[in-house]
């Protein structure tokens, strides 16, 4: 099992994508100090591989999934945060919250170009300001959550409450359903 070295994210902007560093810099300093970053092997960035290699639980690992909802010619985008032990309710809860007739996962190229982050590292910190930020209540309730750092070579570790306090964040009960 590989080890992780936790560092203050605000003091190590080289370990996160530029939009993530900018978002952390704008946070209340008390909140920013609660965010840690750890370098990881980019080949192990995918959730299951990361958890196995670094001894982290799937039950504290959250995935940021970019969803687009369309109604007529209006498209709304959301960054949705759900635990790795759950499955995002794209066609139910997310679609309704986006007031869309149809909701789908955003194309990878769109998500990467609009966030300025790497695929597999997209995180809610630093998403475009016109996006919705939907956080499953299970994530918000955790004392420590693992999320992407905007790059595949690092992970952020922070309280769920910090995620819930991000600008525009909506904490939603049952945004995701437990995987059976």
Mass-distribution shape: globular
Work out the helicity level. 25-40%
Sheet having the most strands: 5 strands, mixed
Question: Can you identify the CATH superfamily?
Answer: YbaK/aminoacyl-tRNA synthetase-associated domain
**What would you call the structural class?**
alpha+beta
What is the fold named in CATH at topology level? YbaK protein
Radius of gyration: 15 Å
Domain YbaK/aminoacyl-tRNA synthetase-associated: 42-160
Organism: Microbacterium trichothecenolyticum (Aureobacterium trichothecenolyticum)
Pfam family, one: tRNA_edit
Protein name: Prolyl-tRNA editing enzyme YbaK/EbsC (Cys-tRNA(Pro) deacylase)
Describe this structure in words.
This is Prolyl-tRNA editing enzyme YbaK/EbsC (Cys-tRNA(Pro) deacylase). Residues 42-160 form the YbaK/aminoacyl-tRNA synthetase-associated domain. Pfam families: tRNA_edit (PF04073). It comes from Microbacterium trichothecenolyticum. InterPro entries: YbaK/aa-tRNA-synt-asso_dom_sf, YbaK/aa-tRNA-synth-assoc-dom. By secondary structure, the chain is an alpha+beta fold. It has a single domain (7-178), classed as Alpha-Beta Complex (YbaK protein), CATH 3.90.960.10. Helix content is 26%, strand content 30%. The chain has helices at residues 18-26, 29-32, 47-54, 90-97, 108-115, 137-140, 160-164, and strands at 7-8, 36-39, 62-71, 74-83, 86-88, 102-105, 132-136, 145-148, 154-158, 169-172, 176-178. The strands form three sheets. It has a five-stranded mixed sheet. A hairpin with a 5-residue loop joins strand 8 (145-148) and strand 9 (154-158). The protein is globular, with a radius of gyration of 15 Å. The two termini are 27 Å apart. 44% of the residues are buried. The mean pLDDT is 96.
């Amino acid at each position: 099992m590989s080890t992780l070295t936790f560092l203050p994210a605000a003091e190590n902007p080289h370990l996160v994508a530029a939009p993530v560093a900018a978002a952390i810099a704008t946070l209340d300093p008390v909140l920013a100090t609660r965010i840690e970053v750890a370098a990881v092997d980019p080949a192990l960035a995918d959730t299951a591989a990361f958890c196995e290699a670094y001894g982290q639980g799937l039950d504290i690992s959250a995935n940021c999934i970019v969803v687009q909802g369309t109604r007529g010619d209006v498209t709304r985008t959301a960054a949705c945060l759900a635990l790795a032990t759950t499955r995002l309710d794209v066609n139910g809860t997310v679609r309704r919250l986006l007031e869309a007739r149809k909701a789908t996962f955003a194309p990878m190229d769109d998500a990467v170009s609009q966030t300025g982050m790497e695929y597999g590292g997209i995180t809610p910190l630093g998403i475009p300001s016109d996006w919705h930020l939907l956080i499953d209540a299970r994530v918000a309730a955790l004392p420590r959550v693992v999320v992407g750092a905007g790059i595949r070579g690092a992970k952020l570790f922070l309280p769920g409450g910090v995620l819930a306090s991000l600008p525009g964040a909506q904490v939603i009960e049952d945004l995701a359903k437990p995987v059976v």
